[in-house]
Amino acid sequence: MPTRHDLTLLLLISACACAPVLAPSAWAEPLRPVSAHTAKRVELPMLPGLARGAQVAKPVPADGYAGSEACATCHEDKATSLASTQHGRAGNPRTPAATQGCESCHGPGKAHAEAGGGIGVGGIVNPSKLLPQRASETCTSCHDRGTHALWSGSQHDQRNVGCVTCHSVHAPKGERQIKAASQMELCGTCHKNIVNRQHRFTHMPVREGKVECTSCHNPHGSANVKLLRVGTTVDDSCTSCHSEKRGPHLWEHAPVANACVTCHNPHGSNNERLLEAKLPYLCQRCHVTSRHPPTVYDGFVMRNSQNANKIISRGCVNCHQQIHGSNAPSGQFFLR
Q: When you count CB atoms within 10 A of the terminal residue's CB, does the N or C end of the chain come out lower?
């Protein structure tokens, strides 16, 4: 059995054997002043095939491909417009310009170029002439991550609204290459009733440019209803901003627990706070039993009853202020 002396000797031999390997390492250099370190230039490794100051090399056309330069001989305007968009940035390896250029979306064009061009000649593909779902297959071959991950089977996809319905690669007018100057204008081409609500007395600040349609909705697909961006219910989406209304509460208000849109119209209303109806008539849609609180306060009641104070100012909310829920032990009537 080895003794303590034998083990010590083995450790010394191992250290001596490793010394020639460790000694020449960079960290073994003597300490230097900080100024010496800052003055020392650090050479970062370059990507293979790139010299310092050189531009990104153009992709070599594969078999059956003619190359973007061949496309530009006839479609110079399309090539110029592509270069000014995100798709024309060759520095991003996921863009068409970094792969096969124009032919990344339009298919191999060698046969098309050799035949002298022409619509449909040589098997060339024009996504804008295809069915929306067929054209979207071309786009989703790259745009399949993040906000685009749930596109397949989404509400827009099911209704034959494709990528080229809203986006233009060569002639965009707004950000994210949309076909209109703003999202409200683009979405309004189909959702006219929603856009009209933006012109009511109270509305979401879309007209003022503080929010836009995609602040709440994800048009490319969502796990929530109505293509809402956050959560799985309407309340989850609303409370992502209005966190002070988030429960759980000791005393829940039934319409609030059901959905915020029971009482509010998020796109616009002629009543304060985006309410669906004017107070107290909003509350009386549910509270329909006799006497206080649900008595309909018509002109006769206002002139001949002391309950007329319930129709002025904020109506029922003059007293019942905690209508989104109360945590007071005696708050079942949501009083202030």
A: N
